[in-house]
């Protein structure tokens, strides 16, 4: 059954759990997420980036979500636009049946340049007003995702194209968060605490100097009823790096967001936990393994089925650890 982000996160808040939000680009990822949800009786957030919409086509994505809702009728399903960059992206998502949108006004519409606070408030409030007219939910973001180690935004996509960011820009300010939520009326607030997107978040297991979990606790203390969102929440497990590298891959050693830090966030108001990279790595590890172990194989299903199985296992683990299992 289709539900909004608001409905889903209100339930998560009441019962004190977190919901992983997994990214989708194709049928196999959709089936892996929903099979995992069915296996552990969990509610689901599926999200599509602008890149996913361009890759799969809006019509295809919309029909895939219809199909998943029909195949898994017992699972509460929220379809969410990940990192909408302007009004048009958010409104066309809703038009295609998404029940929730992220308006990421922490960056300008180029999705690279950090935006002013006034720009962020203005565009997010406008999208929230329009989305709420038609019953969709809105996630906003305050603070720019990026590395506290290097001062770079979006660590995976290059080297300081927009110059170094200040600590203030990379960690959400609790006072500003209070003002932002009041002025925009968002249903959920994504915060920045030192994580970034992609596989290369940290050069070592993160400690308090490079991962500002305390800011989540401060924001939750000020805004106890606001649903917080953690982006860049892949854990980049060592075993997935090892599978990829054991079968011809060449990923440099890296560290992600430890699951125990996410669990700590969930104890302090984090209700939506965005995960894409881990799912990509789970699938790619199997593509590489099959290609290595059976070089004569040429049926794509022989690659995709183990990849789906690996992604499903990853999703089951996150549903369980975030407390979403049994909550559908
Ligand atoms: O926000 C980042 C997500 O991992 C989506 O990535 O834009 O490559 O689809 P993408
Ligand atoms: P990861 O790259 O850590 O999986 O983060 C995904 C994300 O935040 C999508 O919005
Ligand atoms: Na999002
Ligand atoms: Zn994100």
TrEMBL record:
Associated pathway: Carbohydrate biosynthesis; Calvin cycle; Carbohydrate degradation; glycolysis; D-glyceraldehyde 3-phosphate and glycerone phosphate from D-glucose: step 4/4
Documented EC number(s): 4.1.2.13
Cofactor: how bound: One is catalytic and the other provides a structural contribution. Binds 2 Zn(2+) ions per subunit. One is catalytic and the other provides a structural contribution.
Gene Ontology molecular function terms on file: fructose-bisphosphate aldolase activity; zinc ion binding
PROSITE patterns on file: ALDOLASE_CLASS_II_1, ALDOLASE_CLASS_II_2
Residues noted as binding Zn(2+) 2 in the record, renumbered to the chain: 104, 141
Active-site residue numbers: 82
InterPro entries xref list: Aldolase_TIM (IPR013785), Class_II_FBP_aldolase (IPR050246), FBA_II (IPR000771), Fruct_bisP_Calv (IPR006412)
Catalytic activity: beta-D-fructose 1,6-bisphosphate = D-glyceraldehyde 3-phosphate + dihydroxyacetone phosphate
Binding site for Zn(2+) 1: 83, 197, 231
GO biological process terms, semicolon-separated: glycolytic process; reductive pentose-phosphate cycle
Residues reported in the UniProt entry to bind dihydroxyacetone phosphate: 198, 232-234, 274-277
Claim: Nucleus is one of the keywords in the record: no
Entry keywords, A to Z: Calvin cycle, Glycolysis, Lyase, Metal-binding, Zinc
Cofactor section: Zn(2+)
Functional summary from the UniProt entry: Catalyzes the aldol condensation of dihydroxyacetone phosphate (DHAP or glycerone-phosphate) with glyceraldehyde 3-phosphate (G3P) to form fructose 1,6-bisphosphate (FBP) in gluconeogenesis and the reverse reaction in glycolysis.
Family statement drawn from the similarity comment of this UniProt entry: Belongs to the class II fructose-bisphosphate aldolase family.
Entry-linked NCBIfam families: cbbA, FruBisAldo_II_B
The name this protein goes by in its record: Fructose-1,6-bisphosphate aldolase
Organism expressing this protein natively: Breoghania corrubedonensis
Lineage: Bacteria, Pseudomonadati, Pseudomonadota, Alphaproteobacteria, Hyphomicrobiales
